[in-house]
Design a protein that fits this description.
The structure is a homodimer.
Chain A: E1 7-12, H1 41-49, E2 58-63, H2 67-73, E3 82-85, H3 91-105, E4 110-115, H4 123-140, E5 143-148, E6 159-168, E7 173-181, H5 186-195, E8 198-208, H6 209-219, H7 221-237, H8 239-246, H9 255-260, E9 266-271, H10 281-288, E10 295-297, E11 300-303, E12 309-312, E13 316-320, E14 325-329, E15 333-338, H11 345-354
Parallel strand pairs in A: 1-2, 1-4, 2-3, 5-9, 10-12, 11-13, 12-14
Antiparallel strand pairs in A: 4-8, 5-8, 6-7, 6-8, 7-9, 14-15
Chain lengths: 361, 361
Amino acid sequence: MTSSTDLVAVVMAGGSGTRFWPLSRAARPKQLLPFAGGRSLLAATVERLAPLVGSDRTLIVTNATVAEAVRADLPDLPGDAILAEPVGRDTAPCIGWVAWRLAQTHPDAVMVVLPADHVIPDGAALCRALTDAAAIARSTGGLVTLGLAPTRPETGYGYLELGDEAIVATAHTARRVRRFVEKPDQAHAVAYLAAGNYRWNSGMFAWTVAAIVAAIRRHLPELAAGLDELALLTSHVGEAAALAEVYPRLHRTSIDFGVMEHAAEVWAVPVGFAWSDVGSWLGLEEVLGDAGSDVRIGDVLALDSCRSILVSDGPLLAAVGVEDLVVVATADAVLVLPKSQSQRVREIVERLRAEGRTGLL
Amino acid sequence: MTSSTDLVAVVMAGGSGTRFWPLSRAARPKQLLPFAGGRSLLAATVERLAPLVGSDRTLIVTNATVAEAVRADLPDLPGDAILAEPVGRDTAPCIGWVAWRLAQTHPDAVMVVLPADHVIPDGAALCRALTDAAAIARSTGGLVTLGLAPTRPETGYGYLELGDEAIVATAHTARRVRRFVEKPDQAHAVAYLAAGNYRWNSGMFAWTVAAIVAAIRRHLPELAAGLDELALLTSHVGEAAALAEVYPRLHRTSIDFGVMEHAAEVWAVPVGFAWSDVGSWLGLEEVLGDAGSDVRIGDVLALDSCRSILVSDGPLLAAVGVEDLVVVATADAVLVLPKSQSQRVREIVERLRAEGRTGLL
């Protein structure tokens, strides 16, 4: 059984993106948006983990562009808890960097790794799942992932196919992962949902430091060599200079594609709690909305509106009689579109980029 | 025949209002909004009159709150061309004040009086009508008003019923006004439209200085006494001090209700040019929109939108796939509502007033 003192929580907060434009910007990605009852998704993620690990065992990995904003968002965390990549290189270098560091400071720890930008209302359920995942990571030496119960034939996520082999932990029965499945087409997604032994790949993991270091050495030897070089150079010139020198050269790849899909022993802890990765303005409604009513965030004065997503980050947003509309107001940009076309925010962002209006991005 | 050197143009620019909130504010009423191809309605009004009168014979009457903004909007006008009421007292005191002033400086002039906030695309047609109106004012000594050909059974305007007596001027045949009609109900409006001898009361006038002074003395003797007092006090303490002392005590009334409806001899010059008083966001569409396309003002990036009114006064307004919507974006307030409910901007303004958010009004 894992005791919580063995745990280190690693929150990956390096994401950027434009799906929440104009609220999200280069300097203020999704994880910093106030989508968790006034707090940011990141702050809510850290708070959810508090019953599991203290702030002295919580690490945030972000990037240089937003590191200051992340620090401001998490004033209770010690300054050295926030690690900033000089450039983003996807999840494998990010996780590898932290694992190599922990191998020196906490070689016997179990890492639990979570994205900063998910909504999980039931934090206690998450903590129970992570506790069991950590215990299985410890007892098996394998890599453990949380497998979300699919609620719809979603084509936007990867899936885990579960095998028959099982391990019973305190509150969950983990299943051996038979294979990782890339984002499927609609027909396959429907089949996976019906089959019963498929789970959404959550991007939430648990493993011992030793296990992930070994897996990276085995499946991503070039990355491992880069991380060795980073550690060596750090001992000579300090971490900042070493990062600036080595990190940009690390190969960009995800932990799923680079390691998990090839690893010998992967376990999934099936979980059923409500979850969203808040992938778009519509995703926000899914986690925050009540049927028929609006999602309202910020200074919103709405009369007779319904099923709308009304968000302000400063200006008063006044709406009358709007239905099924997304309206997002900031001081320098306003977005209006029907919910049914909410994906088209990308076209706006592309146009702005093409027109060189980078100040708005 | 009136020569143009006899003319003085008086533009009434004292209005305030909330129908264009959040673009219109206490310090920036409708006449200063950029609804005339990037220029303000006021600037466009002054420009339309340029073929008729020089800037040395153009007077703007506004109020103290917006006088500075009016000056900034009309940089080519001499500073003493802009007269500021200390408080608004409707059109009769405003016109009376200017008439009493002109009685001293231009006693033989014909005044043409126009609101600052109308849209009249065909400025030449307006000038021809005002030239004829001035000639009739000179030749008859009566009060002359422009009578707009009604295009719909509008219940929001007053009407003029025309009598049979006629005077032929250069380009128009003026008709004696039989009576003024207050805003009618729908049935009467339909009847007036069908009758053929009714015109919309435009609020655009021509009269000799002597005629309007005499009419005010006759029909509004209290106002005349106040204006006499103002003139006398001005000669002792200067106009600013005299205005502050006397003007707030002047009785609030309109020139239509106080003078025109009672005057012995009123002539109407019937005009058929396109005209709008831009009474609401919808009114803007009437004068600026093409069928099926949007009205777009300011920094607007719209994809696949139609029949919408998209206005920005600063922020980028990005819209995708919106239909029949009004969206108005400013740095501190954004309004969104369906065109069919555009009158309800008042409810928003009332709520803000009730909540004491006067900074937004």
